[in-house]
């Protein structure tokens, strides 16, 4: 059986592609580097992260991209012995404009090196590429209309100005022919995330609608001609939880159709699992997969209705491989362990090293926590509603402007951090920095003021999340017992709905290691290990 979400934690906008017996899902990564996560499976049950293809400056440079910008809604496909990846790099979020630039990269293999990007257009975001059975290729994206009061966090329907279609010429690597607006969406509005496929002579168009909050939906339409007109699905929406407030999987929308090798039908979608009492999705937007059936050349959920299920049949009787409840990372020379990412910059050598001090991850203090340019923050996704994270940091600050430690991070307005720094009277201290959703100013609070004095040498730092609550701990690495430090903090604010609220941001929570040095001296901090531990056998709790 398939248990949803199949990709827990921040993994939104899933585009699925099957090549023979292999399935691949590409998801959005926004401001996190390298860009686009690609997971692989052979059974639709067990998934493994195998590639982040946008990994060098010639492909992607997000320095200066605001929070929740960067890589939106990739589309992964396979044709002509190549994998094709289409994506948007969004450079602006607030105000009337988006500045959304669309690109295509290719590779003969998922695991290999991907090409430099080919620029396509900038008329809107959420692009996709459809390979028709006559050999022609078609590029789709939503069209953004800036002439409305469609400010970030309060989207207005007129800004989402339909789905554009234009032919793509792989020889000239450019668009050609007329641009046609083929689909205005349903009355739900906010039409985006288009994907085309063809079956029995019908062109099927699935789109995301309703915004990426609790009114989200997968809308379906069909036409005998690729340019339309498109008729709406009898239910309008193939998948949605907007009218089912008690469903486990909320915010269901934005996905793609796939057929198993034996013809069984499935459809991906993003979802959120809100925590009571404030209905905040602390794991961000996750990826789920639904079993579908065909009736009268229309696709329906196999269980009936439109509300997604947590458990659905798999193509074969395969059991899920149990994931370890404790993952301890020891840092060795070589590539960064695959579960970790950093923010925005294509120059990771400026912010970290795995070889400068063997057995350690060295972070070079750069700009402040929350910087949109060069921030030394290396972190992994939160994948459970409850977990514990630990690290050991060796750091000798010379000024209060030099800081390093452990963080629970969403963006510049939403984070908590347990850090080591210097105080002019107390000496080296352990203290807490917190920004519990202060938009737009990003002002921090200091729950234990200047902090408490810490002995020389490495320091162990830890955090425990129990649903909406966060407690920090610390001890000298030379020995001693863990000591709770500071009050219980609001972990639930580290979520899409925290602070600014729904549609204000839409990524996910990370936990990891951070350092900054606003003096400009680049003071280094060495991290010896990182532990992520979830409850034993939690499923997808």
From TrEMBL:
Pfam families: GH43_C2, Glyco_hydro_43. One of its GO terms (molecular function) is hydrolase activity. It comes from the Bacteria. Gene3D superfamilies: 2.60.120.200, Glycosyl hydrolase domain, family 43. The keyword Hydrolase applies. Keywords: Glycosidase, Hydrolase. Residues 330-533 form the Beta-xylosidase C-terminal Concanavalin A-like domain. InterPro entries: ConA-like_dom_sf (IPR013320), GH43_C2 (IPR041542), Glyco_hydro_43 (IPR006710), Glyco_hydro_beta-prop_sf (IPR023296), Glycosyl_Hydrlase_43 (IPR051795). Belongs to the glycosyl hydrolase 43 family. This is Glycoside hydrolase 43 family protein. It comes from Pseudorhizobium endolithicum.
